[in-house]
Design brief:
It is a single chain. The chain is of the alpha/beta class. It has twelve helices and twelve strands. The chain has a seven-stranded mixed sheet with strand order 4-3-2-1-5-7-6, sandwiched between helices. A hairpin with a 7-residue loop joins strand 8 and strand 9. Helix 9 packs across helix 11 and helix 11 packs across helix 12. The protein is elongated, with a radius of gyration of 23 Å. The relative contact order is 0.10.
Length: 375
């Protein structure tokens, strides 16, 4: 008898490896995000096999963003198909995107909020008060009995390549160019782990595996360049434009291995970024142990650090320490950008005197040979 399609076999191996490395043993509930597209349906097939063989519990969640009139019917059909495959727990969840200026970003945040709720994270949290959700199937998010396990996401090497290109276009640093991790916090919900076992696989290979089983998938027009969502200038959304225009042009210019090369770039940069993060964390821990970093005695609280040891470090390590100190003083991590960090670094490496740098939620004040971080 022929074995599984190579894409399925690779996905199963990677999912098992991720579960083991993250310490998720049999009996853990795995929440699988299933949109009905090819990537998520392939993930659903892979997760079902691993769960049955290795003793994991499964919950599938399909999010209806309400963008198109037929979206609710399609979400219900996806849940019905999953139950026919053997998913005892397959729910659809509707989210309200509100009237914000970034529907794509709101949809993403609302989707992650719904997945966090389904994974057992507690109360659903919207974005800017605009997003909410409600389960539309028996065994809804509030009825979970298993301990909080990971959320499985169907991002592929193609998605990773797009993420790298987005970072390049925005002039981002290594942290952004490193793309999405195979295992890391669910965006906006750090208490939940997100696993992406398909990051090393191409979308075409997963579709071939589905076709081999006779499984059809949904093509969401919202992801197309002429879809219902438009950029501020009237053109397609950035990721849709990358997928339909930029990546095909790069493949034509550089060859068919472009997507794999971009995904490999993300992997290499992630390793480098992790090494620099580790160096900075060790350096900061040593300073704290020897009293180099001290608590600020001002009413606003915060921390005080001398400038001399900061200047001795390579820029990439110094800026990581500065960011960590700013966050400790109350800066809002999601709003601190590369420009803020560059301004902090200039504060430390520039001329002396009394100067300051304002950050979202905090301020850094230089007084000759020290920097005070405070709210």
């Amino acid at each position: 008898m022929a074995g599984p399609h190579p894409a399925y076999a690779a996905g199963r191996r990677r999912l098992r490896a991720l579960l083991k490395s993250c310490g998720y043993g049999p009996g853990t509930r795995l929440t699988v995000a299933v949109s009905g597209g090819s990537d998520s349906l392939a993930l659903a097939r892979i997760a079902l096999f691993v769960a049955r063989r290795d003793g994991y519990l499964l919950r599938a969640v399909t999010v209806n963003h309400g963008i198109r009139p037929e979206a609710g019917r399609e979400a219900a059909q996806v849940a019905s198909r999953l139950r026919s495959w053997g998913y005892d727990d397959a729910a659809t969840v509707s989210v309200d995107l509100g009237d914000g200026s970034s529907p794509e970003g709101q949809a993403r945040a609302a989707r992650y909020a719904a997945l966090a709720e389904a994974a057992g994270a507690g109360e659903m949290a919207g974005v800017g008060g605009a997003a909410g959700a409600a389960s539309e199937a028996p065994g809804g998010a509030g009825e979970l009995g298993a301990s909080c396990g990971p959320v499985l996401l169907g991002h592929t090497a193609d998605d990773q390549a797009e993420t790298v290109l987005l970072g390049l276009g925005r002039g981002s640093g290594a942290r952004s160019l490193a793309g999405m991790p195979e295992a890391g916090p669910l965006p906006g919900h750090p208490e939940i782990t997100a696993l992406r076992p398909l990051l090393g696989l191409r979308r075409a290979a997963l579709r071939a595996a589905l076709q081999e089983e006779g499984i059809a998938w949904v093509e969401d027009p919202s992801n197309e360049p002429d879809g219902p969502w438009r950029a501020a200038g009237g053109g397609p959304l950035t990721r849709a434009a990358l997928r339909s225009r930029a990546l095909p042009a790069l493949k034509e210019a550089l060859g068919p291995g472009t997507v794999e090369a971009l995904a490999r770039t993300a992997y290499l940069l992630r390793r480098d970024n992790e090494a620099l993060d580790s160096w900075a964390a060790r350096e900061l821990a040593t300073w704290e142990e020897h009293g180099v970093v001290k608590e600020a005695g001002e009413p606003a609280g915060g921390v005080v650090v001398p400038i001399a040891p900061l200047r001795e470090l390579p820029t990439a390590v110094r800026t990581r320490i500065l960011r960590a100190l700013a966050l400790r003083a109350g800066a809002r991590g999601g709003e601190v950008n590369a420009g803020h960090i560059e301004a902090l670094d200039a504060l430390v490496t520039g001329p002396g005197g009394v100067r300051h740098c304002d950050l979202p939620g905090a301020r850094a004040l230089r007084r000759d040979n020290i920097v005070v971080f405070a709210r």
